[in-house]
Write a structure and sequence with these properties.
CATH topology: TIM Barrel
Strand content: 5-15%
Structural class: alpha/beta
Order of helices and strands: HEHHEHEHEHEHEHHEEEHEHH
Number of domains: 1
Shape: globular
Largest sheet: 8 strands, parallel
Number of helices: 12
Radius of gyration: 19 Å
CATH architecture: Alpha-Beta Barrel
CATH class: Alpha Beta
Length: about 300
């Protein structure tokens, strides 16, 4: 289904969705016609908004309408409270967008207050599942302040906390997806690998952000595909961002990372992750299009790399 057709279909679907009480079984999914589903997330839209001197996330009625105009099937928000979750869940339903995943941060490397922080994530997850049918909770454990590295004791506490969180989410039929940025790849990638190699695969799955791995390893595709070789079987979600000459591009297009190869390797392994377009902008990114245009311009390359997931 082409994006223009998708948006037209959603316009009709929204009228139905707005009159219904929010329930997972009632989520309108225009992408069901061909099985194709691409989400985006709040981080992306925030970077585009800030570049234009605007904000994102203070007016969900209009902000999520822009996401629909960009042709997206779903939205992955960053959630910190029940009130925030309730508000965005209502507007997602009105806009005909799914929330198959959500991002919930947490500080997991210190023992004090750890039980409360883990329980908070699980409570948010349970409510998201009840409201939106959400099945994946993406978590990037909070870094140390001042750019310091976590020591071995802190890494051990964090790994155990991730396992506890993952088991708690499995108990309510949800999946924990560990997520990293570039900082976890420093110092021999000790934090990154300890969270995956040192944890129970049954409790901790993986949200692969290919570009953070690429950048964190000094712009290395060799390192990226080593990570795929090591942890492919744990990948349940992809965050998709591209760069050219090391600088993030506005749209998801051919560039530094061979996403066609990544798509082939996942297809060969029978791995069908949730696709989340995280094509954010940074200071050196060219300024030639807005967020809606950038998302629409990403469709061709997305399908070239992952179109096999339509069937």
């Amino acid at each position: 289904m082409k994006r223009r057709s998708f948006v037209t279909t959603l316009s009709a679907a929204m009228a139905v969705a707005a009159s219904r009480k929010l329930q997972p079984s009632m989520t309108v999914r225009a992408a069901d016609a061909d099985g194709w589903h691409v989400s985006t997330n709040s981080y992306v839209w925030g970077t585009f908004a800030r570049r234009d001197g605007k904000s994102f996330g203070n007016d969900w009625e209009n902000d999520l309408q822009q996401v629909v105009k960009g042709g997206m099937d779903g939205f992955e928000p960053g959630i910190g409270s029940v009130a925030q979750l309730d508000e965005i869940a209502d507007w997602l339903q009105r806009r005909g967008l799914e929330m198959r995943s959500m991002y919930v941060g947490a500080q997991l490397h210190e023992a004090d207050g750890l039980d409360e922080r883990i329980n908070h994530v699980i409570q948010l997850a349970e409510r998201a599942r009840a409201l939106c049918g959400t099945s994946i909770v993406v978590n990037n454990p909070a870094p140390m302040g001042g750019g310091e590295a976590k020591n071995d004791d802190q890494l051990g506490i964090q790994r155990n906390a991730l396992e506890r969180l993952g088991r708690g989410l499995r108990a309510v039929d949800m999946t924990l997806a560990y997520h990293n940025h570039d900082v976890e790849l420093r110092h021999g990638a000790r934090e990154f690998h300890h969270m995956l190699a040192g944890s129970d695969p049954e409790a901790v799955s993986f949200c692969l952000d290919a570009h953070w791995v690429y950048r964190g390893c000094g712009n290395s595709q060799a390192a990226l595909f080593d990570v795929v070789e090591l942890y492919a079987d744990r990948i349940v979600e992809l965050h998709l961002r591209q760069s050219q000459d090391g600088v993030w591009t506005e749209a998801f297009v051919p560039g530094d990372i061979d996403y066609e190869r990544l798509g082939r390797e996942l297809e060969e392994r029978g791995i069908r992750p949730l696709l989340v377009l995280e094509q954010a902008v940074e200071a050196a990114t060219p300024h030639t299009m807005n967020a809606v245009e950038a998302h629409l311009a990403s469709e061709d390359y997305l399908r070239r790399c992952f179109g096999w997931m339509e069937s």
